[in-house]
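Can anyone check this?
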Amino acid sequence: MLLIAAGLGIAIGLIVFFFVPGQKKADQVQGKTDSPRTAAHEGGRKAASQQPGPGRDKTASTEQPPAHPETNRPSGMPLITLPSAPGSLDLDTIPLPPLPYCIYTDGYKNFKEAATTLSELDSNYLTAYIVPMAIKGNVAQSLFGVTQDGLWYLVLTGHFPSRKEARKTLAFMMKELPGYQPEILGFPYALECGRFLAPEKARKLSDKLDRKGVFHYTQDYPTTSGKTLTRILVGCYFSEQGASARVGRLREKGFDCRVVKR
């Protein structure tokens, strides 16, 4: 009996020795798998490890920084030609090259957290802006790297004509802001609320939008006259239909905005 008991004791000891550490290692791996999602919480994807979803681009050329970090203006953007008599010019009729691509820095449930990231990007000479977006469903959550449905404040950077152009700024951000996981996104549509050559007129509309609580941003185009053509935009949309759904609500607030290509 004593021999049988001793044999059982040795067998149990071997099982504990060989199998318990393996279980501990499995627990550690599971912890590593869960921790990025926990780190994202409602503050977004900062320092989170995720695979890019549809429409997102994590590749960046590290050979050169953004061409114009002080304005984030694409180096290849052509000058906009204005007619010789700008006094009678209808700015809405001027064709503008689309700039649908931007860099998605992060998404936040809390506006103050989004504003903090915005300030950090501004301090690095990056043109950033906040776009509120209602996110619904697993696909949308995966696309933006968030953990729940609802209203999120997206922090976006830049306006680019192509992914290739955006990658220059993306490389700069990944080097200078290693705590984030910036990714390229394309939003083909927005709502345009005005175009201006006079900065004071652009500021006047911007102030009015602020007073009504409408988030907005600008796209700036250099012109042959030396002036900058500024258009004020609201929202970022994947489809024309999605953008059109917002027109009526802005009209109720007193803004005559139209769907345009970004």
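Reply from J.R.: I decoded it. The first strand starts at residue 101 and ends at 108.
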